[in-house]
Structure formats: C-alpha cells, structure tokens
Specification:
homodimer, 153 residues, alpha+beta, two-stranded antiparallel sheet, 20% strand, DNA-binding
Chain lengths: 153, 153
DNA sequence: TTTCCTGCAAAATGTTTGCAAGGCA
DNA sequence: TGCCTTGCAAACATTTTGCAGGAAA
C-alpha cells in the first residue's frame, strides 16, 4: 500500500508537469495539438531523457521526425524542456525541473540521468565575468556507468 | 626588444609542442606523414581551437576531409589533442595543454578559448562516485562573448 | 617489403527548408 | 476565418566506410 501511494503521488506529479507545460504553450498564444500533447506526455512518463529518435519510437512513428524536431525547439524556447548534451554531441531532452536548468550524471549505457542538485555554474560564470566575458552560459555534465549497468555489464 | 624576446619564446614553445606531439606518434609505432605534420603545426600556430573545416581551410584543401577526421581521431586517442564540445554539438580541437584535460571559456563569436585553470571535475566525480557511478568523465565549458567581440558587436 | 596511410567515391546519419493541405482557436 | 501546424519531399551538412594505390619505416 505504501508502494501504491508512492505510485499515485508520482502519477499526480507527472500530471502536474504535463499541465504546466501545456499552459506555457497556450499562454504563449501557440496551439495545443496532438503531437505536442503526446510528446509532453511521453517526456513526463519517461524514466530517462529522450532523443529525437526515442520520441519517434515511443510515439509509434505517428509523427514525422520534422514535427518532433520543430516541437522540441518550441519546447526549448518556452523552457518546457532542457537539453542534455552528450559526449558524442547528441542531444537528449527532458522536462525542465524545478530550476531553469540543471546538470546531470548520465549513464553511458542506459542513458538514465540523475540531476545534480548543486550547480557550480555561478562560480564559473563569475570567473568568466572577471575575465571580461559577458552573456554567459555553461554546460556541465558527468558521464559514467550507473550501478545497474555495471552489474549487468 | 622585449616583445621580440616574447615572440621568440612563443615560437620556441610552439616548436616544443609540435615536437612532443610528433614523438607521441612515432613512439606509438605510427608514421609521421605530411598531413599529420601539417595538422599539428596548424594547431600549434592557431590562436584558437579549430574545427575540421578550419583545419581543411588552413591546410588549403590539400588534404581530404576524411584524412583530417581520421587523424584527429588518432590525435585524440594519443592525447595529442583535446576536444571542446560546443553548445551546438560541434567539436573544436586544440593541442593538449599541461594537464590531460582542461575546460574553457569559449567566445561564441570568434571561438577563441581561454583555458580555465581550476577544474571542478574532481568534486563532481566524487559526488557521482558516491551515487554508485563508475568509469567517470565530465564536460565543463563556459560560453560567452569575449571582450574583443563585445566592443565590435 | 610490409604495414600503415591517403584519397576517392559512396553511403550513412542527422537536421533543416519549402510548400500545400489540414486543424486549432 | 485566419493563422498556426503538420507531413511530405527534397535539400543539406556532417561523418563514416570500403577499397585500391602510394608511402613511411
């Protein structure tokens, strides 16, 4: 029963995140369409950040890749999703967390990602600022093998 | 004259870096060829990290793109070059500095990059380790507009 | 002389653009 | 209705693979 409560809570939380995302779309004067709704739901339900290809598969190829690319770009502009840049230059997408952006420990094998709760970006950007740089942003990601993959591999 | 001494010192330093890189190749049983020699020289002389396309242009198209790709991969494996992963997923290459790897403040416009001398990777990897992850690596880069580009732009 | 390396050609990937038809508000 | 979105097709950019000839050691 304890597990059941947790499941319910998790579901609720998902629903909230979906609703928030959808509001951002309609509040921006954009339209809520089937692809947008489903892509957001898939991201909300996912246990890990997803690639464009992942999203295509999980939506059963119902939507053109172009549609996925274009909507992820819209989502990114609205702050609905964050992008995780992998070592190989590829992108993963996940719904934005509490903060405007976060960093991750990403498993190279299963691509599961844990958010790193402390962000050292401030210190880095302060340093960059002292060197005369402006309009700053930063990327920080850690890659490794997660406990699950390690025991399997 | 002071400037002249500095120039000479800089040239010397370049030569040393070229020599070190070349040694790594021959010590590995690989061959020193014209493309390898020139690519290393171009990287050594460059005022900023270079893309594959940059290297192609600076070598006046003398070498096939394939050759550049393949050699950069060899250089990376030998630790001769480091890769800087830009926000857009593209790569820049520079000769490895004192340390095995470093992080940078990269100007979005001119792509000049300053090495960040303090690496916070240790702390990050210690945290990842405590979460059960192994075989760790990390990326940290800061992006902004450098003082030169700011005044121009 | 052996093995490595290069260039060419072609294929494979991943992403973007233009446009006409369709659908949300 | 009006404008936003979608899907299709094609273009584009980037990187990889296979193979035969050429070069370093």
């Amino acid at each position: 029963m304890c597990a059941q409560i947790r499941t319910m809570a998790a579901t609720k939380n998902e629903d909230v995140r979906v609703a928030i995302s959808q509001n951002r779309i309609t509040d921006s004067g954009l339209r809520m369409t089937a692809p947008r709704r489903q892509l957001i739901e898939i991201l909300a339900e996912s246990e890990r950040p997803l690639s464009v290809e992942d999203l295509s598969q999980r939506s059963k190829g119902k939507f053109d890749l172009v549609t996925i690319y274009r909507n992820l770009e819209v989502f990114r502009e609205l702050g609905i999703v964050e992008v995780i840049l992998l070592e190989n230059g590829k992108n993963l997408f996940e719904l934005t967390g509490e903060h405007d952006h976060s960093h991750h420990i990403v498993c190279r094998h299963c691509l599961k990602a844990e958010r790193i709760e402390f962000c050292m970006g401030g210190e880095l950007e302060r340093y960059a600022s002292s060197r005369g740089f402006s309009n700053l942003s930063h990327t920080i990601e850690v890659f490794g093998e997660c406990p699950d993959c390690e025991t399997k591999g």
